[in-house]
Amino acid sequence: MRSLRDPAPSRLAYRLNRLMLTPRFRTFLRYGLPVLIIASIGAFWASDADRRQDMGDRVAEVRRQIQERPEFMVHMMAVEDVSDTVAADIRSLLALDFPQSSFDLDLDAIRGQVETLDAVASAAVQIRGGGVLSIIVTEREPAIIWRTSQGLTLLDAEGNRVSAITARADRPSLPLIAGQSADAAVQEALTLIALADPIAPRLRGLLRVGERRWDLVLDRGQHIQLPETDAASALKKVIALDGAQDLLARDIAAIDFRNPRRPVLRLTSGAIDAMNDFDLTQTTDALR
User: Fold this and answer.
1) Which residue of 3, 157, 243, 251 could cross-link 271, Cys pair, CB 3.0 to 4.6 Å?
2) What is the pLDDT of residue 283?
3) What structural domains and CATH numbers belong to the chain?
4) E-assigned strands of 87-201?
């Protein structure tokens, strides 16, 4: 007699059937296994150094061809809203050779370089149509001249350096300051200069004393010594006294307002000699 085949599945078949019913295993067979096979083939292919080098060269060549397409090339640079001197400084600083691919230009780095120039407050860099590298610059506006042992320097209203000049006559319309760390108090200096407008024709400049206060220097060597704090109020009092009594027209060497409660007038040597002569004449007359 022939033996009948057991219709029940084998233990292995049973386990495989149960495994196929598992959602995670079916997902692995559908997605994970193909990816694993492809990754294995790729790893085997990339294990050869010559093949890797050849692929790298092909990718680099394709990238070069894309980057050097005419629509991605920059042919010129335009420096806008800036003086000719600053424009020349920017071109000299960047020293870019054209044409260049726009992919080779780091716009943030270019902007950072341009903003290192003293005369530049801010800059915006972009690539315009037609292959133009556009640099739009906001220049610092000179507001005052700072005299130091190294020479004359133009500063803006916030005390930032703009540029150097060779002579005071180059910018006669700008006020002059001097003294160590005077650039750190430019805003206060400009305020005092504005308050001193009634005596502007006589004002020669401001001197920073001890890095903490100002002297106004007038013609004829006169000084108005202002306090460390609330110098503006002290100067207003001096201007008021001059308007009422022509104080600054007198034979005075300095007006010391460092202590506003006890201002002191220092006479010139000529005025002192005249006073001494007057006292001597009075004494002589009294002895007769």
Assistant:
1) 251
2) 38
3) 70-139 (3.10.20.310), 144-273 (3.40.50.11690)
4) 100-101, 120-128, 132-139, 144-148, 151-155, 161-165, 176-178
